[in-house]
Structures are given as structure tokens and as C-alpha cells.
Amino acid sequence: MKECFKDKVVLCTGAAQGIGLVTAQEFAKAGAKVILSDVLDMTEQVKELTEAGYSAVQYKCDVSSPEQVENMINWIVEKFGRLDCGFNNAGVQTPQRPMAEITYEEFDKTVAVDLKGVWNCMKYEIIQMLKQEEKGCIVNTSSQGGITGFPGQAAYIACKHAIIGLTRTASIDYAAQGIRINAVLPGVILTPMAKDIIKRNPAMEETMIRDIPKGRLGEPYEIAHAVMWLCSPYATFVDGAAISVDGGFTIH
Q1: pLDDT tens-digit readout, 102-121
Q2: Which of 54, 59, 124, 156 is catalytic?
Q3: CA–CA separation, 112 vs 36, rounded Å?
């Protein structure tokens, strides 16, 4: 599958750490020209890739801002000429507590990044891809919580449900024009975000593993490989899908 991405231009948001970073690394190792995007500085992450001989640049962007996202896509096109794949992965989590205790400010911030951020990126990625002869692929990060629930994460889970609906509807809008749009639904993956949840509630890890038929938590590269498959020619008839990568959690 790796030969599919030689010289492809790939944008990964939320790429400073976790799933976003590992996915960017895997695309780069497969020969893609990768843009790592985040609100955080990624100088060291990019340096590690370029010193290893891979093509990678960073672009700091707050995906909740339509203006910043539009500027980012324009910059990518000016630099690379096109955009082949967009992995919309940037996200934040609400502090863990019951729904009625979540503040309006916390809710608005979660929606701004986790849902509006995906909307913003999709909008400008699609506008660009429609101009290209070879259109492109988009993968959005939802969550196993996009088809289930999770205690104390009402705002986050609401966004992850909405991302699936957004993905499916946009895929219908643009399938005939050659743009494939899918969503990946990670289970509990050993990312800094997951580790933070476990740190706040150590008993949660045992509970999570107990409910996963696979008997373990996932690794970021396992999500990265699913994203790459969805963006590859091996998945040309996969459109509007919401694919769970969760060790069987959602069928347990």
C-alpha cells in the first residue's frame, strides 16, 4: 500500500502528538509530502522526519478559525500545487464530569474544535479538490464514542456523533465528483489524550480493556494504517463509511 502515496500531498491536523503525529509519520515514510498542522509548535517532529529523509513541513493553524483554515489550504496549494489527502484529526476533550456540570464555555470550545474544525477543514479541502483533475480523499476522526456513549464526555461525544453525520452527507454531495469522504472511529488508543483520562481515573483502564474483545488498548499506528487504506486506491468503492478501529469494542 505504501507505494500509493509517493509524492502525494497529505494534510494531517492535530499532528503535534498522538494519532495525528503517527499518521503524518506513516504517510511521510510512504513517500508522501506531509503537512503537519496543529496549534502547537512541531519543529522537533518535522526535524525528525526531514533528517530521516522524508518530506514534511509544519503549518500552525487553529482549525476552529475558518480564515486560518482557508489560509492554510491556500498556502499548501501555493507550495505543492494540490492537495491529495486531508486527515481531519484535530480535537480536544471536555473536562470529565456529568453533562449538566459542563460549562457553556467548555461546550463551545469543544464544538469549535471538534466539530466546527472538521467542517472548516472539509469545506476548504473540498473547494480545492474540486479544482483538481485528480480529486482527492478526506478522512475525518470520529470515535468509538461516535456510535456509543462515554460518561462525563457529553460535549465531546455529541461532536463525534455529528462528525459521522457530516461525513456521510458530504460523501453523498461529492461522490459523483470524485471526492471520497470517510470517517475513522478509533477505540481507546494509547495517545496522550487517553493517557490523561486514565491518569485522572486509573480504574478506567481496566474497565476499558475488559470491554475490548481484543484484550488490549490500541496503538496509534493501527489508526494510521486504517486512514492510509481509506486514502488509497485499494478503497476506491468505500465512501461515506464510518469504520470502527476499536478491537471489537462496539460489537461487544
Answers
A1: 999 999 999 999 999 999 99
A2: 156
A3: 20
